[in-house]
Amino acid sequence: MEYNKTIEETQEYIGMWVTGDGYIRHELLPGNRYDEARGNRKSAYQGSYQVKGNHIDYRDDTGFTADGEFKDGILYMPE
Q1: Cα 25 from Cα 37, distance rounded (Å)
Q2: Which of 5, 39, 54, 79 is most exposed, with the fewest beta carbons within 10 Å of its own?
Q3: Are 8 and 54 in contact (CB under 8 A)?
């Protein structure tokens, strides 16, 4: 039986994640911090994140929270 590791186990989530239209860019940094750019606005939001299995929870430095799911190399965020 083949065991598929979660993205938490492989740490393949570290790096840049970009929406299909390129407008939102999440840079997931080592140390559970992120930097989000929107359009021409670099570092629009910054905060912390936690990955459990294939799920990610965000909390920006103002207290806003969001989450998402990694599936087949794509980060899905609820709209």
Answers
A1: 5
A2: 79
A3: yes
